[in-house]
Amino acid sequence: MRLLLLSTLLCLAHAQLHKPKNVLFLVADDLRPQLGYFQDSADFPTPVHPRMHTPSLDSLAKRSFVSRRAYVQQAVCSPSRTSLLTGRRPDTTHVYDLESYWRKVGGNYTTLPQYFKQQGYRSIGMGKIFHPGPLASGNDDPISWTDPYYHSEEEQHWTERKHSWYAVPEAERQAHPLPDDQIAEHAINKIKELAKDPSQPFFLAVGFHKPHLPFIFPEKFMDLYPSDRVNVPDNIYAPRNMPDIAWSKYGELRSYTDIEELHASGDINTTLPIDVTRDLRRGYYSAISYMDHLLGTVVDELMNQGLGDNTIISFWGDHGWQLGEHGEWCKHTNFELSTHAPMMVSIPGMTDAGMVSEKLTEFVDLFPTLVDAAGLPTMPLCPADSTKTELCREGESWMPLIRGDGGQWKDRVFSQYPRDNSKIMGYTMRTDRFRYTEWVKFRDYKPEWQKLFGVELYDHKIDPEENNNVAAAAAYAPATKQLSAQLRAGWRSARPDDPRSVRYDADAWPIFQHL
Ligand SMILES: *[C@@H]1O[C@H](CO)[C@@H](O)[C@H](O)[C@H]1NC(C)=O
Ligand SMILES: *[C@@H]1O[C@H](CO)[C@@H](O)[C@H](O)[C@H]1NC(C)=O
């Protein structure tokens, strides 16, 4: 009898152990790592604002593996999302703009939700996961999902607004819920439905639109950021010795009527008036707190339904955002503020105590990380030409970092941004200490390194705001030479277990205080 009981218990334990883990895949749009949680532990970004009110993400972070230094592969929506969702970099997806569909211009690559679907998961998407648009993402990529894709019915109503920000009175919100309100509600209903069939594993992707422009949020969130407490950046000038090609005229922001009326040119070393800068910052922060609130309601429902113990939760924002630093706005650049974004993964039983990593990571790492965390068949590394390979990765699973296996990890990470209709490409690389960028001629999806349009080097040890390009400084010549070789060798040579891996020591160069 006791033996029978024991074996039943073992059997149950076994079933529990092998029950596939669900995934709640949460995404925010245009969110730089401006969360209360980051402020507690670190210096990012320069503290020119009141404390952020992001209790939901702060509490998720406390039971997650948080990468404090995660970098996107290209700082604009569709290229960044396509890269993360296919696990490949822009030079493999060939998506550098908001129109192209990787299955047409790159290859028929399997996406993250599609892979879970192939493994027997129910894959459900809503809001902004792929970049929506005419051709873009082939209308949310139907192959990726088992259920019909959901968009808020109120999206049209709210995109008609042409002011850069708007604090919505409660009565108006009642009449016309905001798109993210509806996305959160839809997610909550789905979770209730999914909880009724615990044997069916799910991959539930919830993509919030905020804090993307226009900054529209229920008005009460603005009370968190009183005008007199919102500071403006103290570095409103372009970096010293910055090549012009690095600059973006933030046309996206200037297309809103209130900004257009200012006749701002977007030129280097011009910026928006101080009161406008302050209002935009308040709007951005308020939109973040609003998104955080909705995200909290979704995570709470998951817990209420008893799914918390068996659901992996990932969160990321698709790239950073410039809020007037350097006089710059929006994304569309290779600067730290554009390429650095929040990313965290909560794995029940593994990350419950919370882990903060200072290792450099990349958005292409998330696909293999979630696959490993869920215990699905591991993804192979992409071959040099992966055009015909449906499933592979160009990033590294975080599992060795999460398990604390020791071993080596990549010491440099890569992003890129095109200019001039992709006839020029800026390749940028972050090491522990430096950001190094080369803008070069780009043809047939390949850089022509000898045709240079500009070089940038920022020494984060003494210049964390990237105010001073020292690429041409004699004192940095040896470091520049090494960094250039690393950048041109590309991401593969940064992989610790790559046979050609070369560990450079540019980070160990002495600090030059006086230039
Ligand atoms: C792309 O791959 C999917 C399976 O992942 C397949 O169903 C589809 O037919 C393929 N499309 C093309 C154009 O090869
Ligand atoms: C922008 O202003 C900064 C600070 O005055 C100066 O160092 C830099 O050279 C200027 N850049 C251009 C392109 O005018």
UniProtKB/TrEMBL annotation:
It holds the Pfam family Sulfatase. One of its GO terms (molecular function) is metal ion binding. InterPro entries: Alkaline_phosphatase_core_sf, IDS, Sulfatase_CS, Sulfatase_N. Residues 1-15 form the signal peptide. Keywords: Calcium, Hydrolase, Metal-binding, Signal. The lineage of its organism: Eukaryota, Metazoa, Spiralia, Lophotrochozoa, Annelida. The keyword Chloroplast does not apply. GO terms for cellular component: cytoplasm. This is Sulfatase N-terminal domain-containing protein. Belongs to the sulfatase family. It comes from Capitella teleta. CDD domains: iduronate-2-sulfatase.
